[in-house]
Structures are given as C-alpha cells and as structure tokens.
Amino acid sequence: MQQTVVIFLLAFSSATQALDNGLMRTPPMGWLAWERFRCDIDCENDPQNCISEVLFRDMADRLAEDGWRELGYVYVNIDDCWASKSRDTQGRLQADPKRFPGGIAKLARYVHDRGLKLGIYGDLGTYTCGGYPGTTLDKIETDAQTFAEWEVDMLKLDGCYSNATDQEQGYPRMSKALNATGRPIGYSCSWPAYQGGLPPKINYTLLGEICNLWRNYGDIEDSWDSILNIVDWFAKNQDILQPAAGPGRWNDPDMLVIGDFGLSMDQSRSQMALWAIMAAPLFMSNDLRTLNSGARAILQNKAAIAINQDPLGIQGRCLIKESNGIEVFWRPLSNKASALVFFSRRTDMPYRYQTSLKVLDYTPGSYKVYDVFMEKTMPTLKDTTEFVVSINPSGVVMWYVVPSAEWQEQPKFHQAIVKADSFIV
Ligand SMILES: *[C@@H]1O[C@H](CO)[C@@H](O)[C@H](O)[C@H]1NC(C)=O
Ligand SMILES: *[C@@H]1O[C@H](CO)[C@@H](O)[C@H](O)[C@H]1NC(C)=O
Ligand SMILES: *[C@@H]1O[C@H](CO)[C@@H](O)[C@H](O)[C@H]1NC(C)=O
C-alpha cells in the first residue's frame, strides 16, 4: 500500500523532476568569458585579454579576493576557443598548448585551491561556433571522460554545426555520459536556443530532466537593446518558460553585461533586478580587474542576490505592462515574501507610478517593504494603501516585500541586509 502511494506521487511529480546530480539547487553564479572576451586568441599582441590560462587565473584571483566568492559567484567558466585545433593521438580534446601551457587540469586545481569551480565549453557538432573541434555523437563519452579527468565542474554544450536530429540524440546522451563519469558536473544545454526555444520543438520537461540550465534564446550583446530584446522574449513566452524552472533546472537568459560598456547605471540595475526576478543564472561577463565601483555595488547587492537565490526556486513573471511604458514584475519567495520590480521603458524623465499592493494581487494585510537598491526599509504598507514609486528612464525600483507578521522571521535575509547597510529592524 505504502509503496503504491510513493510510485503514484513520483509519477505525478515527474513533470517537475530536475537532473539528479545534486547541483545548482539555486541558479549558478560566477563568471563566463564569452560576451566580454569572445574569441580573442591574439596573445602576442593582447596578452591580458586573450583566451588563455592567464585570463582565467586572473578572474579566479579577483573572484576569491574581491568578495565575490562569499556572495556565491563561484564558477570561473571558459567559453569557446580554448582548445587546440586538433584532438590528441587518442582522439581526446586538448587545450591550445601555447595559450594553456599548464593544461586544463592544472587550471582546475588553481581554481579549486581558491574555493571556486571551473566550467568548460564544448559544442555538440562537427565544430564549435569558433571553428574548434566539436563533440560529434561518437565523441560524447570520450569528451565527458576527459572533462571529468580534468576535474571540471560544469560544461556548457553549444549547438553550432549540428542539426535537430543530432541534438535530440546528443544532449540527452551527454547528460548520461557526464553522470557515468561519477563526477558531479553542472550541465548547460544550448539546445533550445538552436530550435527556437519553444514547444513543440522544445520539450521543457525533458530538458529539466537532463540539463541543469539551458540557453533558450540568442546571445546577449553589450547593449540596452539586447537586454530589452531578451526581456521581451522571456515575458512574451513566460507561460511556457516560467513553469520549466525550478531547483536544479533553470532558464538562462544569458550573461550579465553589467560593468562593460553598453549599459548606464540605471540599465545595469535593471538587468540585475530582472535577472533576479527570472531566477536566472548570474554569470558576469566583464573584466573583474577593472570593474568600476558602481557596477561592483550593483553586482554585489546582497538583497538582489538573495532574491535571485531564493531556495524555493520559483521563476517570476511580468504582471503588468502599462501603455505608458511601465511594467511590473513579481516573484514569489520563501517565507511568504515576494519581490516586485517596477520597470520603466520610458525615455523622458523619472516617472511617478501610482499603484497599491492590492492592485498587484496581494492578499489583504500589512507589509514591510525593503527597497533593494536604496538599501532601506519603507514605512509599513497596507494592501490598500496607494503609493507612488519614482522610476528612472530605463531603470527600476526593486522591492522585497514581506507580510509584517513574518518580518522578524527572516533571519538569513535580514542578516544580509544588516551587513549591507547596518540597517536595524
Ligand atoms: C547519476 O544519476 C543517479 C540517478 O539519477 C544519481 O543518483 C547520481 O547522483 C548521479 N551521479 C552523478 C555523478 O551525477
Ligand atoms: C544531421 O547531421 C548528421 C551528421 O552529423 C547527418 O548524418 C544526418 O543525415 C543529418 N540529419 C538531417 C536530418 O539532416
Ligand atoms: C516530454 O518529455 C517528457 C519527459 O521525458 C515525456 O514524458 C513527454 O512525453 C514529452 N512530451 C512530448 C510532448 O513529447
């Protein structure tokens, strides 16, 4: 009798099953080379910025020494263009000998010695997008074994130079091959991005069972247009995407470009806020050696990170799109808390948006509100109280909202806030 019940429950919960490698129960955080450093392999003329072991050691040092690791930014991830143009005599991938003279295993040790994790990149196809050796179907087990032997902690498997049939076979097979190595390796699948990101071509139930995260949509660029394009696609398709996410299985709208060249401070806060609402992986692609203090403060905002990392792992949604260019996003959090983002697409001046929690579907009661970027608590709000938020053009106001009665029961988050600005409840 007991057993029947268990089987019945498992059958019903299988739609929300995550890849069973114990990893990434909250969205992964760290640093990824691609958007900022691309396929710069000119180490002779650009030694500090080319794709080489120097770059990844530098970023590991910064993550370990500048307070990132303690906040959860622990992955140091290699992207394309790390490999030699040819496999070794036994058919295994090998790092470019000039740019990675120590090899990947040694780099992994360097990263691990600093309490961090190393991610690597492969491509399910004839070639990687940059023209390096790809992982064809017959090479899947070999490459999984190589990555495990190097003690790599995460694999991003891209999809250039392959077709839908090969992807359908290859992505699940790599998942099995990684598992068979016995080493827990986080698995990022670019599969949906190559097939339009939507059903029927993409089965998100299956993806959740075989991948820890997946790129749904095109590559991010260092521009506000790119952010808007991504946010719009995710909001438009949220009924499909939102239920796909959960502990161990995340939609990935791509890297954070905060600290690069394309975003203003307001736009940077917007990316941080919206990525937190979307329960997105937080992979910075910037130069941590030269990051300005404004970008650093946004990326290290403890409340925004705590919202992103909420243990319930429920992705948020766009609730309201006003014709005046204001949008409201919402994410339910643990302990009856929630996050709200008031986002302005306007291009004129700070907009005074009036609403109430009741209008935003909050249940009757009184609420404590903490403003994430102002780093301060607001006067207690009743659900019916009309309030006004002033939202900068292409900026956000982000709130952490808790029923007043629950406020004292937020030890972890509260501690983060206290640390952030010495605020005392
Ligand atoms: C492999 O999969 C099994 C069953 O799903 C799981 O219990 C185990 O932890 C996995 N191992 C690794 C290394 O991912
Ligand atoms: C997909 O690519 C493989 C080569 O990797 C090829 O053998 C196969 O015929 C292709 N399938 C389709 C449907 O194009
Ligand atoms: C999607 O994948 C799941 C899990 O593998 C499977 O049970 C389901 O039948 C698939 N759905 C479709 C429409 O193929």
TrEMBL record:
GO molecular function: alpha-galactosidase activity
CDD domains with a match to the protein in the record: GH27
Keyword Nuclease: no
One Pfam family of this chain: Melibiase_2_C
Subcellular locations according to the entry: Lysosome
Domain Alpha galactosidase A C-terminal: 313-395
Gene3D superfamilies: Aldolase class I (3.20.20.70), Golgi alpha-mannosidase II (2.60.40.1180)
Record keywords: Disulfide bond, Glycoprotein, Glycosidase, Hydrolase, Lipid metabolism, Lysosome, Signal
Enzyme Commission identifier(s): 3.2.1.-
Domain of life: Eukaryota
UniProt signal peptide: 1-18
InterPro entries assigned: Aldolase_TIM, GH, Glyco_hydro_27, Glyco_hydro_27/36_CS, Glyco_hydro_b, Melibiase/NAGA_C
GO annotation, biological process: glycolipid catabolic process; glycoside catabolic process; oligosaccharide metabolic process
Transmembrane segments: none
Top class in the EC scheme: hydrolase
GO cellular component, as recorded: lysosome; membrane
Subunit structure as annotated in this protein's UniProt entry: Homodimer.
Family statement: Belongs to the glycosyl hydrolase 27 family.
PANTHER family linked to this entry: ALPHA-GALACTOSIDASE, ALPHA-GALACTOSIDASE/ALPHA-N-ACETYLGALACTOSAMINIDASE
Stated name of the protein: Alpha-galactosidase
